[in-house]
Amino acid sequence: MIKITKNIDEANFITHGGTFHADDVFATIFLEKVFGDVLLCRVNELTNAKEYSNKIIYDIGNGVFDHHQLNAEIRPNGIKYSSVGLLFKKYGLDYLKNKNIFNYQKVYEMLDKDLIMQIDAIDNGIFPDFSNNYKITTLSDLVSYFNKNWNEEKDLDDLFLKATKYFTTVWDVIEKKVISKVEAEEILKKALKNSKDNILVLDKYIPYKDYVIEYNELHKEKIILVIFPSNRGGYAINTIKKNFKTNENILDFPKKWGGKSPEELEKLTGIKTFRFCHKDLFCAAADTLIDALQIAKEALKKKN
Known about the structure:
single chain
């Protein structure tokens, strides 16, 4: 449980007061997962941090879990750590190992990439490059919305606790998703050995996208299309992105297929159960595996 105290001497954790951000909120959530109960004191300044060496101090005080000093630690990729990144670097592996998680090293790396690093980046002024004329809401934006509005009189400590409660659920679902992705890799390794003609066929849907992109970067013979049973019935045929930095596919389905009715698709291809092709040409569907494979082969043939 996370509680806040105004008495700094009785607290076992210290962070900054006032407006809160994604890094101190998620840092607090992580500390509760590692140490159990958190009795936190949020202070506006801390000039005598050495007096509280028996407490964990983060995002304030210029200590090992702060990132506001000139010599703050930087990741190998150039992104400066924030408080949650520094804490996760220190305790993350042991936290996951103690939960008896399969391949906890890989889970640590993926959780760092999928959750922690984006908080580090945005908190240190590295923002996503969006060229759209509408707002893209980041995780850090969502946390900021829990702060009080200019025309409200609310206690920031209460709002901080409300944010930690809400985003604990967010942490949990992301962690669970990452664990499932790592577990899926063992299945994907076997399936990739049996793939042929640039097509990967899965017995059921598993999170494949990141792993297949990584696989393609390392192999000359690339996976271009993935087939798996759809939760809507039948089989889905999906494209694969060229890399992690683009939404461009290695292959788009033929333009003349996009948005057509099942009757039109059968007439165009001769494939009887071809029932759907997205208008943006990144996925298709058929009622049978045989037809799904035929759709994939026809698409590859037109590409080549």
